[in-house]
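Incident log entry.

Two folding requests arrived from the same account within the same minute. Monitoring flagged them as a possible duplicate submission, but the sequences differ. Recording both here for audit purposes.

Request one:
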Amino acid sequence: MRAELGWAVAEQGRAVSETAAHYGASWPIVHAAFVEHVRVPLAAALPPVKVLGIDETRRGKPVWARDPDTNRWVLACDRWHTGFVDAAGTGGLLAQVEGRTSAATIAWLNAQPESWRAEITHVSIDLSASYAKAVREALPDAVLVADRFHLVALANDMLTQVRQRVIRESCGRRGRKTDPAWAARRRLLTGHERLRPETFATMWNSLIDTGDAGIQILQAYTVKEELRALLALAGTNPQRRLIRARLDSFYQHAAATDAPEAHRLAATIEAWWPAIEAGILTGYSNDQGSHCTSSCCSGWWCGTCPLSGPVFLMLPRGSDIAGVARIRSCFVLGRGRR
């Protein structure tokens, strides 16, 4: 019976709570059966990885505890975890460790065999100075790749900041549903190719009609779309002259606007350009696995991850299996939590 319970959770992708309800067993019994089922896979060596993906995921609220020596409150459990994924292979989660500092990242990388680390040619990260420092120290021969998802998210944040600032400056208040800029807030963040022509025309004309405020928002929108056009070259084996042409177009549009938010975005792109260019030339990113760090199964290598809820394995493969019992929310390709 226990073997069947463990198999249902680990192999069928069913949540512990769902399995417990189906078989009429308690949550602890099903969880213990799952721990026993994954004992051997968790103790197995890491698979060869060519492109390593590193990304952060939020794990609920931080946990504080009182230090018995100093009687001061200290952080016992960080709300941020760092996930390591096979970005170019299965996209599966290799490990998830507590913290998102360079020290935590370096510690896990240095704990892996030197032969395994030597096979890593590229590392895909978000625009995190901590992760970049960790990669330079622990994997000095690997090429840094800036993840495209985070770059687009950065551009969308820039556009949102411009829209909010313009409304505050022009209206002296926050946006309301009667404001054209506020009404178009979702469309502004949508890719141009995904908007119907009539929808785009309505959005564009409504903002033009508001005067300088709307024009500044549309300039920021154009900067965002220029960056997306540049990143769209990834995976197409583009010629360097085409990359340079789209990069220059992005810089020109960013320089043409008075929005300081767009200028900061351009400065960020310039600072991270070697890693961004590497992503465009190679096509590598975390789109397969990085977001598996926030919704993946506890230690299994999985090609896809259909969940939206967090799964947290605080131990890398090869660690003491007893640590699995400390998992607070157990998702294994399932849809529920304890």
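Request two (distinct sequence, not a duplicate):
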Amino acid sequence: MPRVIGVIHLPPLPGTPFHDPSTFGRGLETATASVAALVAGGAGGALLQTADRVYDLSAGTDPLRVALLTQLLTRLRETTPPEFELGIQVMRNEVEESLAIARVTGCSFVRATALVGATMSSSGLVTPNAAGIMRYRDQIAAWDIRLMADVASVHYSSDDDLAQLARRAVTAGADAVVVGLPDIPRTLKMLGNLRRSRVDVPVVLAGHATFDNAPDLFPWVDGAFVSTALSPGGFYGEFDADLVRRMVELAEGAPPAQDNGQ
């Protein structure tokens, strides 16, 4: 499990209502440069995440999005070291499409907004079909591609007990669970409770790491999704290799998750 995984937010893709052809090419160049910065800074991987403004939950993703993401990740796989892990998350919750792209392009993992239960989003209720996802995963022989499922994040919320959610996600096929909110004290409490519950699954920080709070957060997780802290330009901005290097040093200096006094 990479200790630091940079999350690269892709601008609205062709086939989505807010796609802007005049700036899209620059967005892809930024994504490519950000992956290069992650490699140069010593990070272990990158997650490409589609970041549209609205999502149609009534239908699957546009095939053009799948084709473009496949092309982009193929190019990135060819230009990054084999040990550098690439991942994909097609939002809002297109897990089958993510698995298909990963299978073809050599990605190591996918991230799922939801695998079990249901969660409300700005576009409506997200209701995953875990059985269907796993049937498709089996159909395309993608068991070697790790599936990281959100169980408490800005993308997934539930009133259910977090440890029980994590266990359900593992039972449904998750290889890791993703936890983390902008409220850092609350996140630390959730992570501590989850560790003490002894759920046998890697825990990945959902985001929100900064250079100030990372020393508190990293000892509780096996890996961390990190984004805006690495980018002077903000949400869609290009990553800086020096900032990546600083974050990696914080992660590598943290004690392993199993040794945090839980």
